[in-house]
Amino acid sequence: MDNKFDVKKLIQISLLIAIEVILTRFCSIQTPIVRIGFGFLPIAIIAMMYGPLSAGIAYTIGDLLGVALFPSGAFFPGFTLTAFLTGIVYGVFLYNKPKTWPRIIGAVLTVCLVLNLGLDTYWLSIMMGKGYLALLPTRIMKAALMIPVQSLIIGIIWKKVVIKFVKVSHA
């Protein structure tokens, strides 16, 4: 690996982290129980281009930067862990593999159901002192909405935008 590629990779990941912070903090709907936003997209792109570890670390950095620069509540490290695991999951499903609809949907289902619905609901129950089951109905509705939205956005952006960008940047 030459240094030019490393710098290029670092710049691309840094820009995508900045986009993640902006999309999460400024372009999302936030309630105490649910956040609906598009911060997942830059992380999915990092995962597809650079792998699970790069995406996990990038999402961790983005989460920490977002909390430090634009706090919207108390910091809770569980959500940072979920962010890291989200990048890992996207990378495991999508890095160096064909970006097929079943793979994209599998990644989104795992993130939305296991991490966002399961783990994040657990973190919220700890933070808010509410029962896990009491938080589930609203969070199930969010997951039901976000699964098709995330799947479509990741698939379309990959096929229509990112592939063209990658071809241009390698030319």
Automatic annotation (TrEMBL):
Transmembrane segments: 12-28, 40-62, 74-95, 107-128, 140-158
Pfam family name, one: ECF_trnsprt
Alphabetical UniProt keywords: Membrane, Transmembrane, Transmembrane helix
This protein's record includes keyword Repeat: no
InterPro entries, A to Z: ECF_S_folate_fam, ECF_trnsprt_substrate-spec
Top-level taxon in the UniProt lineage: Bacteria
Name of protein: Folate transporter FolT
Species the sequence originates in: Terrisporobacter mayombei
Gene that this sequence comes from: folT_1
